[in-house]
Amino acid sequence: MAVAATKEPNRLILFTDAVVAIAVTLLVLPLVDVVPEVAREHRPATEVITGHQPEIWTFLLSFAVIIRLWLSHHKAFQHVRAYSTPLVLCNSAWLLAIVVLPFPTEMVGVFDNSRFTTGLYIGTVFVATGLQAAMYLIIRIDPEVASEDTPLPGEFVLGAVTAAVLLLLALVVALTVPGVGYWALLLLLLSGPVEWAWRRRHAVAAA
């Protein structure tokens, strides 16, 4: 019998929110360091922006990625009435991926489109998304975890699994096709059509 499954999820949620907030804050630190660097070299203040656009765009992208993952996590945990050991382990691993993300983010700004940094960045996002899909599966199928009144909709699992598969494909493309780099992330735009096709196929099969 899983003792952890009898516990309220509030502490886990609050801890997760705090760690995500710290990770988001860490993203901006490399940009903060740019200011004294420009001042020491007596360059115009505008070069804080114009001379470091890759770092700025990478920051904005990573900020959007983390916030999107957190918002999805927040919505999913509204359907949790208790947490289990597998859910805690998946959540902890997911937090590790979120905390690690500022590291490849800074590397992207420094090393541009090298294959290693591209793979490290997309791979980190893939791991975070895959772990999120695993959490959603646990929340949906474990009766001791899922809310009895408002179970997790299947769309959550479908969306996370679709995103993880597309990110894995983006990782393979970025590592194997020269010159593609971060453009491979545009594959994520297919998530909407893929989910629609899956739901349509499932509806036809059930009819």
Automatic annotation (TrEMBL):
Annotated GO MF terms: potassium channel activity; proton channel activity
Catalytically driven reaction(s): K(+)(in) = K(+)(out)
Annotated InterPro entries: TMEM175-like
Localization per record: Membrane
Chain ranges passing through the membrane: 12-32, 52-71, 83-104, 116-139, 151-174, 180-198
Taxonomic superkingdom: Bacteria
Topology term for the membrane: Multi-pass membrane protein
Listed GO CC annotations: membrane
Keywords from the UniProt entry: Ion channel, Ion transport, Membrane, Potassium, Potassium channel, Potassium transport, Transmembrane, Transmembrane helix, Transport
Similarity comment: family membership: Belongs to the TMEM175 family.
Protein name: DUF1211 domain-containing membrane protein
Source organism per UniProt: Actinoallomurus iriomotensis
